[in-house]
Amino acid sequence: MEELAIRVEHVSKEYRLGAIGGATLKGEIQSKLAKMFHKEDPNLKIGEKAYGKNERFLALNDLSFDIKKGETVGIIGRNGAGKSTILKLICRVTAPTEGNIYLNGRITSMLEVGTGFHPELTGRENVYLNGAILGMSKAEIEKKFDEIVEFSEVGQFIDTPVKRYSSGMKVKLAFAVASHLDSDIMIMDEVLAVGDIAFQNKCIDRMKKVAEEEGRTILYVSHNMATVKNLCSRCVVLSHGQVAFEGPTAEAIAIYMQDKNLDDKTFFDVSGAKRQRKNSNRHLLKNLHMYQSPSSVFEYGEIFPFRIEWESENSDERLLMKMIINGIDLTPVGVIFGGELKHCKGRNTAEFKFDTSYLVPGKYTVDIILYDEDKSGNMMYHDRATSMRFTVEHGEKSLKLKHWFKDWGNAVLPCIEQINGDDNNV
Amino acid sequence: MEQQKWTTVVKANKKLIDMDLKGLKNCKDLIFLFVRRTFVSKYKQTVLGPAWAVIQPFFTTVVYSVFFGNIAGLGASGVPNFIFYLSGTIVWTLFANCLTETSHTFTANSAILGKVYFPRLVMPVSTTISQFISFSIQFAFMLCFMVYYLITDAGLKPNILIAMFPLVLIQLAVLGMGFGMMISALTTKYRDLAMVVSFGVSLWSYCSPVAYDMFSREQLMNGIIYKIYMLNPVTPAINLFRYGFLGTGEVDWLFYGISWITTAVVAIIGALMFSKSEKTFMDTV
Predict the structure, then answer these.
(1) How far is it, in rounded angstroms, from Cα A317 to Cα A336?
(2) Beta carbons of B30 and B20 less than 8 angstroms apart
(3) Does B2 touch chain A (CB under 8 A)?
């Protein structure tokens, strides 16, 4: 039997929803008394049931898995799948509601690097403090001190208070401390999110070395699939607090991506959206539907059809459509004009084709605008809907964008035609 | 088949008594570093530095001497008001700081506590120990005045009970830590108590012989009132401290014994409540 490092056995973690921290002693006593005398709880909102099921939320639901000694395991899953919760339980930051976790060996957690750095203390003092918090003795830290400082690349500033460090420097120093600890199990949650690419690679190399040469067990949580692929031999995919898949990294990532994609809607109902007063609101968008697509993830170059549905108060006004494409951070990419829409009073639909080859692979949101303009170009908006989203992924046609840089922007403009040279040279 | 060995088991939080005392022993370095951190960070970027530790009790003592001692006439009999109030103030400050600082343990350190595990008792223990640093500065300050008053023969009569003073200090620190741990355990859920602490402590100081000499107040020395007054565990401790150093007042050994019992009970209950809430406080803080 191979030796295990971690065993998670039927672990559940329940959280109470709603205001927990805001509870007051008076409120609690009132509620308890009311319950005792079978009266209505004065602190409940109208319509709320006392301690109903909906007030509780299972972040982890009967979760079980084993991790062998010396393994590098990635934990992946969507936001809210319970990744961070299970790490917190393994680090003993908080206790499970049900179930047991067995650990074999000393644990170092890097749930967020820089934990326990005190801004007023110098880098040197913080190395000692942080090492001690993570469980090292003073003698151990002394032995490794030079190695830590060298790895962190901040040697020059080691006697400067940490509050004067840049955030990158803090992360570097913190990672250096944590990765040089003599622990058997290392737990990392998105630690590499900060720091430049060179340092990220250095960290990954360091962790690989730690895992392979020193036989330590590493648990790694990240949304960055590239690093997961690079580092982990095995992955646990979590979904809604349960294990969705456990196995080789490549398969796990495929399952995770699928899980993610299924959630990307193709139908966006905007009939209930809040409208802006400055728009006329005489023509209101109802919904947007990518009616031929199973998901809103498209391969670069794919052309997808979509339909918009709207309701008009009249049929005599002229109605134009345009779309504003935004990046996921809401930086505008560009505008597309959809021309005049034919319509009658009541429900109308129109269908369009969208060519993704003008967009660099990434996530986009779309504002659809119904408007009219007069002869001098003044616009009058009727309605604007903002909730449509889609994703463009790399595919066969996106080779030229494989090594894309941020300063290229997000739009791919049409190719320029070369003017036939022969004609000019004659 | 070889039996799998486990070094740690994380269990659901169901037991009543579950303290990690063994782990605490291995954390000497951590405790020391926390003490250092508290001290260093407190006085960094201040011009006067650790002198602040003396300035606060000095001015408190001056105010007490002038208003309570001279104007209200509540001062000590037989010894100078200044040294009487100074001794009371620094001992009280030690207790009050242990209590208030410990009571903030969870809320003030939630960033660290939420991310790494180490025996949680390290926090209150190191907070309490770090109070002794500023206390020792204040204590040295007081000794200077003692020497001055002894030379000028102002009526001070130090005696053998002076040797008891470490016990008094430990008792007050443990008592403060015990109350502090109770409050910190409760404040993870009920923030109300955090409000109570600051004014509660200052009210408590008026129920203790800090700003006045209880032995020259006849109202306090009679029957039931005296007994109730002496049940305040801080009172016999301060009395013993003053009696040893200044020779003023008297020591009631019965109530001193009771105050130790109170201290032990408070400390144990505090530690239990603390370790009960340490496991899940992250979910509520």
Answers:
(1) 21
(2) no
(3) yes
Give the tens place of pLDDT for each residue, A126-178. 888 888 888 788 888 899 899 989 988 888 899 998 888 887 888 888 888 88
> Does B223 fall in a domain?
yes
Contact A121 B40 (CB under 8 A): yes
Residue B222 has what DSSP assignment? S
Supply A99's token pair: 């179930």
Q: Which long-range contacts (CB under 8 A, 24 or more apart) does B150-158 make?
A: B154/B79, B154/B80, B154/B83, B155/B78, B155/B79, B155/B80, B156/B79, B156/B83, B156/B245, B156/B246, B156/B247, B157/B246, B157/B247, B157/B248, B158/B244, B158/B245, B158/B246, B158/B247
Say whether residue B59 is in contact with chain A using an 8 A CB cutoff. Answer: no
Question: Does residue B217 form part of some domain?
Answer: yes
Residue B249 located in a structural domain: yes
CB contact residues (below 8 A), chain A span 139-198, against chain B: 161
Largest Cα span, chain A: 103
CA distance A69 to A6: 8
| pLDDT tens-digit series, residues A247-295 | 888 888 878 876 655 556 778 888 877 787 888 888 999 888 888 877 7
Say what the ipTM of the complex is: 0.79
Q: Which of A3, A105, A161 sits opposite B7 (nearest CB)?
A: A105
CATH class of A69-261: alpha beta
Q: Classify residue A161 by its DSSP letter.
A: B
Q: Are A12 and A96 in contact (CB under 8 A)?
A: yes
Residue A217 to residue A4: CA distance in whole angstroms: 10
Q: Tell me the domain boundaries of chain A.
A: 69-261, 267-399
Is B27 part of any domain? no
Condensed to tens digits (0 to 9), the pLDDT of residues A63-97 reads: 888 898 888 899 988 877 888 888 888 888 888 88
Query: Counting runs of H as helices and runs of E as strands, what totals does chain B give?
Result: 13, 1
3-state secondary structure of A331: coil
DSSP string for A82-139? SHHHHHHHHTTSS--SEEEEEE-S-EEEESSTTTT--TTSBHHHHHHHHHHHTT--HH
Among A24, A107, A133, pick the best mutation site for testing chain B contact (most B Cβ within 10 A): A133
- Which parts of chain B have pLDDT scores under 70? 1-3, 12-20, 284-285
A135: chain B residues, CB-CB within 8 Å = 118
Is residue A162 a contact partner of residue A121, using CB atoms and an 8 Å limit?
Answer: yes
Closest CA to B214 of B186, B253, B243: B243
* Three-state DSSP class for residue A298: strand
Residue type, A176: A
Q: What domain count does chain B have? A: 1
C-alpha span between A157 and B271 (Å, rounded): 41
Tell me the CB-side half-sphere exposure of residue A157, using CA atoms within 13 A. 17
B4 chain-A contacts, CB cut-off 8 A: 1, 3-4, 7, 102, 104
Range of the domain at B202: 49-284
Closest by alpha carbon to A120, among A174, A162, A157, A165?
Answer: A162
Is residue A90 a contact partner of residue A219, using CB atoms and an 8 Å limit?
yes
Q: If you search the block for the tokens 């969705």, which residue do you land on? A: A244
Domain A267-399 is found in CATH 3.40.718.10: no
Most confident by average pLDDT, A39-53, A228-242, A318-332, B87-101: B87-101
